[in-house]
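The data are passed on as follows:
___
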Amino acid sequence: MKSKFGKIPDYFPAVDLLLHQKKFQFHITTTGMVPSLCPGDIVDIHPVTTQDLRVGDIVVNPMKYTLRCHRLMRSYTDKHGKTWLITKADVWPHEDDPIEANKIVGRIVKVTRPRAFARIWLWIRRKILKHVLRTWPVSFLGKTKRALLLRLP
């Protein structure tokens, strides 16, 4: 099964590990949790039970093609006794739809921020640097260096 990005998603082994009470580590690729989590950050995720969750934790739940890491805002129990969690990305003004508590597979316990050089290569791969280079004045880098950097994949 291919994702909309053209490759088999590699988060399935992560969910399997977390469900079997093992820790897991992966790179953050989106900007929804900036400044807490930035693209390129390496996060350690440990399995968690509903009783161990606290408001403010960054929890992990599987989505269709990815793992979502959002902050836990609150929880409530409905009339049938099911516990629901409300999460939110730090940069968004609105909260996410409620998630069943048993869908949460882990909590982020450690964030490692790589050096600036390693993060630059991630930005190049995501084509963010290309946009910045197109908008900066030519005098900043010089015409030749700017042209070479714009040709990077």
